[in-house]
Amino acid sequence: MSKFMGLDIGDATIGIALSDENKIIALPYENYFRKSSKKDIDHLIDLCLEYNVEKIISGMPFNMNGTLGPQGEKTRKFIHLLEKKIKYSDRISTDIESLEWDERLTSIAAEKAMLQADLSREKRKKNIDKIASTFILQGYLDYYNGGK
């Protein structure tokens, strides 16, 4: 069975979430600490193979007015590089669809959820990107499943 992967792509970390096999629930997977674009993409490709990922949903940090700022441009550049590496990888034999998903306010929602869970400031800082990627993926899964 295949899964979907959610990404919250930042400068220092990439928050990663995976769906369950029924593609209903998003589950936090890891905060990956970035090393280089090549190593980051290799890590994501490894996860795609390990978890039979069929779709990657990357959070796109739009400004509140819907425009794309500098962080959004960096994110889009990384997504395009990831898509290209996946498309031409000799390790991946199936198509993996890649989608951008509006991530406005997901970090705020993640922070609120962790505050409600009474996590310490240190634990919140360690987990914010992973939890944000879970919100990104869950938003897409709810859409994918028709809001059910």
Walk me through this protein's architecture.
This protein has helices spanning 37-50, 70-87, 106-116, 121-144, and strands at residues 3-9, 13-19, 26-33, 53-60, 97-102. The protein is an alpha/beta fold. It has a single domain (3-144), classed as 2-Layer Sandwich (Nucleotidyltransferase, domain 5), CATH 3.30.420.140. It has a 5-stranded mixed beta sheet with strand order 3-2-1-4-5, with helices on both faces. Strand 4 (53-60), helix 2 (70-87) and strand 5 form a beta-alpha-beta unit. Helix 1 (37-50) packs across helix 2 (70-87) and helix 3 packs across helix 4. The protein is globular, with a radius of gyration of 15 Å.
List the helices and strands and how they pair.
Layout: E1 3-9, E2 13-19, E3 26-33, H1 37-50, E4 53-60, H2 70-87, E5 97-102, H3 106-116, H4 121-144
Parallel strand pairs: 1-4, 4-5
Antiparallel strand pairs: 1-2, 2-3
Helix pairs in contact: 1-2, 3-4
CATH class: Alpha Beta
Mean pLDDT: 87
Tally the structural domains.
1
CATH superfamily: YqgF/RNase H-like domain
Task: Tell me the CATH architecture.
Answer: 2-Layer Sandwich
Features:
single chain, 148 residues, alpha/beta, Nucleotidyltransferase, domain 5, globular
Sum this structure up briefly.
With 148 residues, this protein is α/β, with parallel strands linked by helices. Helices cover 45% and strands 24% of the residues. A five-stranded mixed sheet has the order 3-2-1-4-5, with helices on both faces.
